[in-house]
Amino acid sequence: MPWIQLRVHTTEKHAETVSDMLMSWGAQAVSFVDAQDTPIYEPLPGEVIYWANTVVVGLFDAEHKMDKVIKQLEQVSLFKNGVQYKLEQLEDKDWEREWMDNFHPIRFGKRLWVCPSWRDIPDPTAVNVMLDPGLAFGTGTHPTTALCMEWLDGQDLSAATVVDFGCGSGILGIAALKLGAKRVVGVDIDPQAIEASLANATRNGVSGQIELYLPKDQPSLQADVVVANILAGPLAQLSAVISAYVKPGGWLALSGILESQAQSVIDAYSAEFEFDPVAVKEEWVRLSARKKQ
Q: Which amino acid positions bind S-adenosyl-L-methionine, per UniProt (predicted)?
């Protein structure tokens, strides 16, 4: 189906109002785009933050009467100095197929590969994680996930118990099991992440070794290895919870952190952990540390 995209420039204060108007006028979907490349690093779970200068993007059926929408938009009082907008026709594509065609097998470290479930395995002798991201984040393409995968590839996980805190698609926990871990406990605030992790674990034949929980149900245990790829703010705020999962002498890997945020996260854990040198990839970092005995 062909689509028309309406981009409306507004402010942080009015972004939600403009979104509601576009939906009421027939938009099939609405998204928000930064108008001036001002980064927002870490909204908390459930928090929505808009940019000072926001573009609200409404997606309409190409047959929709856009002249009527524009007329309504121009009459809105909050645009008293005139409305800035742009109409764009989107190419009619099979967007799911387009995304699938651009997702390729990725290698991490010496032995670990992540392969889309619809592609051939490049190296059958390697440690291969077959992944369908589905409803949750985590394909290995983002630097933070890649940093964690490379770290896992370099660990001896034989018979280890691993906690994947913020498991998303399950990619880190499944990789740990494929690399020799005995048991993985995955925790995430999103029920869809639990669903995606279970589906991916089943696809990889490790569903019997992974336990998945929402935070309210998370068990009390101490693991050999804990990985948490979320955001710097929650990592610092939840340091007591995450630290408690690591047994004395166990290992911790943290990511989802920008270089400028690394020290604040280190400070939140340094009383209990001794940190390795920081690993950096495209302005993102991974912190790894061993818990003091």
A: 145, 166, 188, 229
Q: Same fold for the domain at 3-92 and the one at 97-291? A: no
Per-residue pLDDT of the chain (293 residues; tens, 9 = 90+): 578 999 999 988 889 999 999 999 999 999 888 765 444 444 445 545 555 788 999 999 888 999 899 999 999 988 878 889 998 887 666 655 655 666 778 899 999 998 887 788 889 999 999 886 554 456 667 888 999 999 999 999 999 999 999 998 899 999 999 999 999 999 998 888 899 899 999 999 999 999 999 999 988 999 999 999 988 888 999 999 999 999 999 999 999 999 999 999 999 999 999 999 999 998 899 999 999 99
Please give, one letter per residue, the 3-state secondary structure of the chain: CCEEEEEEEEECCCHHHHHHHHHHCCCCEEEEEECCCCCCCCCCCCCCCCCCEEEEEEEEECCCCHHHHHHHHHCCHHHCCCCCEEEEEECCCCHHHHHHHCCCCEEECCCEEEEECCCCCCCCCCEEEEECCCCCCCCCCCHHHHHHHHHHHCCCCCCCEEEEECCCCCHHHHHHHHCCCCEEEEECCCHHHHHHHHHHHHHCCCHHHEEEECHHHCCCCCEEEEEEECCHHHHHHCHHHHHHCEEEEEEEEEEEEEHHHHHHHHHHHCCCEEECCCEEECCEEEEEEEECC
**What is 3-92's CATH topology?**
Alpha-Beta Plaits (3.30.70)
Binding residues: 145, 166, 188, 229
Domain locations in the chain as residue ranges:
3-92, 97-291
Binding-site sequence positions for S-adenosyl-L-methionine: 145, 166, 188, 229
